[in-house]
Amino acid sequence: MSAPLRIREAVVVEGRYDKAALSGVVDTLILETAGFSVFKDGERLAFLRRLAAKRGLIVLTDSDGAGFVIRNYLKGAIPKDQLKHAYIPDVFGKERRKRAPGKEGKLGVEGMSPDVLRNAILRAGATVLDGGAPDRPQGDLTPADLFALGLSGTPDAAARRAELLGRLDLPQHMSAKALLSALNALYTPDELETLLDGFRR
Q1: Listed residue (196, 38, 50, 60) closest to 125, CA to CA
Q2: Staple partner for 101: which of 5, 65, 105, 167, CB 3.0–4.6 Å?
Q3: Most confident by average pLDDT, 104-108, 118-122, 127-131, 156-160
Q4: Is the pLDDT of residue 110 over 70?
Q5: End-to-end distance of the chain based on CA atoms, in angstroms?
């Protein structure tokens, strides 16, 4: 197993089992939102804001609807330039500790392999310490680009987005706006050009 990644940013996850799964993957501060509790816990949110301002924050939530509600809440509560987003793929199944799958039948962060979690953190643009990966330029796609690619505003846009999300191992819950943010956060302009070439009309 690879040594834990030493990264500058703190990481926020939903709960303690997610934190346990991630603790062997990254060497950094890992915090919990305690599910939806962060919505009414002013102290917890204030702490996340302070951490984000000081060292940056990576959000890693489940790929179900609840995970996106939490992610979007934090996106609105913390300045954009202090926040990075890590995404896990849609994988259907049940965590070992649970008697039944979740409402949407998808594995959460706790059910992902260390390699998947490590890749998610790296793809989010984590700042690796000890002479690790340098900061990468982010993509520069605009909403107009998504429209030109047929990924928004057209009759078959949802199907085309679903195809791209599946190809990139990103959650199917993503709206066009969320997809735009994820693409720009995860890929350089050159990488985006290659990835999206097949979608050009």
Answers
A1: 60
A2: 105
A3: 118-122
A4: yes
A5: 43
SS3 sequence of the chain: CCCCEEECCEEEECCHHHHHHHHCCEECCEEECCHHHHHCCHHHHHHHHHHHHHHCEEEECCCCHHHHHHHHHHHHHCCHHHEEEECCCCCECCCCCCCCCCCCCECCHHHCCHHHHHHHHHHCCCCECCCCCCCCCCCCCCHHHHHHCCCCCCCCHHHHHHHHHHHCCCCCCCCHHHHHHHHHHHCCHHHHHHHHHHHCC
Q: How far apart are CA 111 and CA 124, in angstroms?
A: 19
Neighbours of 147 (CB within 10 A): 14
**Six token digits for residue 166:** 């599946």
In the numeric block, which tokens belong to residue 30? 């890992």
pTM of the shown model: 0.70
